[in-house]
Design a protein that fits this description.
alpha/beta; six-stranded mixed sheet; globular; 6 strands
């Protein structure tokens, strides 16, 4: 494809729209939060390796011991970052933060903005436990941080409360698996900013697909106009919208298809590299 951008030119253009990228995800996150009538969210993280630990001394993207983390589930170490995602219980990301791979999970409580409606609930694992921040969130904004309590915790939960917390966190693990499936075998980058930009674009593409196109074939309005919107159930985002469902669905598609098409081009370009 002679008219396709080279890898260097694509990276330069991605850097030029870094501010627009952050603003777009912030605005989409606000829309998702308003549509989430349950006001329940899940805070979790997944690692993104730049390289294996044995090659960490030669990479220039991330350097230092702060980026050397471990994956307990895979019993291996990596050199890279951890992506902390605040998502709805349906697995739609609304906020995200990148931290070095070695940082402890509790540190994310000071980095995540938590721009949530009042009286929201946040479920997390036992590592994200800080009683001071829990009290601050509850007192200032009425946000209830509900981590899974350890067995020897001074604030142990009832068995049924513990079951609800574990059940609410299952969907986010599925979402992480779907995000990492979009990743190519190697994300080509020269500096850390470029690496994080490309990772964030994969997350944005998954967010659009999960929120608007999860039950649809992408682009069917343009490719198959004979199909009607009544043949499929509403996407997760539109289930809480009142009024004419068909009109709301059409409006959402007109707003998202252009962004989804642009992101799909970026995804294809990144996967070829």
């Amino acid at each position: 494809m002679p008219r396709m951008l080279s890898n260097g030119r694509l990276c330069r253009r991605l850097h030029q729209i870094a501010a627009l990228r952050s603003a777009l995800f912030h605005q989409l996150g606000m829309v998702f939060k308003d549509a989430n009538t349950d006001r329940q969210y899940v805070l979790a993280s997944f690692p993104v390796a730049v390289c294996d630990t044995i090659r960490s001394s030669r990479t220039k993207i991330v350097q230092g011991e702060a980026f050397r983390g471990d994956m307990p589930s895979k019993k291996r170490y990596f050199s890279g970052v951890r992506v902390y995602v605040l998502a709805t219980v349906d697995g739609i990301p609304v906020e995200l933060v990148f931290l070095p791979g070695r940082r402890h999970d509790v540190k994310v409580l000071k980095e995540m903005p938590f721009h949530l409606p009042s009286y929201s609930e946040i479920f997390s694992d036992s590592a994200v436990t800080d009683y001071t921040i829990e009290a601050a969130l509850s007192g200032a904004d009425g946000i209830a941080l509900r981590p899974v309590r350890k067995g020897n915790s001074k604030r142990a939960d009832k068995p049924w409360v513990n079951y609800i917390k574990h059940y609410s966190r299952k969907q986010i693990k599925t979402a992480f698996s779907e995000i990492t499936e979009l990743f190519p075998q190697h994300i080509q980058a020269v500096i850390s900013e470029g690496f994080l930009i490309k990772v964030s674009f994969f997350i944005y593409a998954f967010t659009l697909q999960k929120a608007f196109l999860s039950n649809y074939e992408t682009g069917f309005i343009l490719l198959k106009p004979q199909r009607t919107l009544r043949n499929n159930p509403l996407p997760p985002l539109l289930r809480g919208i009142k009024g004419d469902a068909e009109n709301a669905e059409m409006i959402s598609y007109l707003c998202v298809l252009s962004a989804s098409s642009a992101l799909s081009v970026v995804m294809k370009k990144l996967r070829r590299r």
